[in-house]
Amino acid sequence: MTDNTTPTTLHFEMEQVTYRRSIVRTVLLWPISFLFATTIAFLEFVSALATGLSFFLMGFALLGALIAWAKGENEIAIGSFVAAFLLSPMGLPALARAVVELLIRVKINFDELMFVKVLPNQHQ
Predict the structure, then answer these.
(1) The dihedral formed by the CA atoms of 101, 104, 109 and 111, expressed in degrees to the nearest 10
(2) How far apart are the C-alpha atoms of 90 and 18, rounded to whole Å?
(3) CA-CA 20 to 30 A from 33: which of 8, 102, 113, 120?
(4) pLDDT over 60 (residue 14)
């Protein structure tokens, strides 16, 4: 730092460096963010379809469990109840929603890393 520079010039130079660093981060990390966004959208769509299908299959598993229990085949009934629970909203669809929500949180944190905002009066 020389004696003949004014504070406004230093402020301007600091702003330029911060701006360039942000553009480099954005250009380098944008494809990864785009990949996260498309993957999350695809997984949400597939999860919604799988949840609807699992409700349908849960109904058949529950019906099969009740029929097996009425006939006295307890082992088949227990297996069918377990399958119905896994296909219920508290089973595999809940696990799929948890995975999608985890990916959404990772993407939000990644986007915050990519778009770092530094105020002009802050020094690094």
Answers:
(1) -170
(2) 47
(3) 120
(4) no
C-alpha dist (Å) from residue 30 to 10, 15, 18, 105, 109: 30, 22, 18, 17, 13
**What pLDDT shows up at residue 19?**
45
Task: Compute the average pLDDT of residues 93-103.
Answer: 90
Q: Structure tokens of 25?
A: 């981060």
Tokens of 86: 């896994």
What was the pLDDT predicted at 115?
A: 65
5, 25, 48, 62, 84 from 44: Cα distances, Å? 55, 28, 6, 26, 22
Average pLDDT over every residue of 53-75: 90
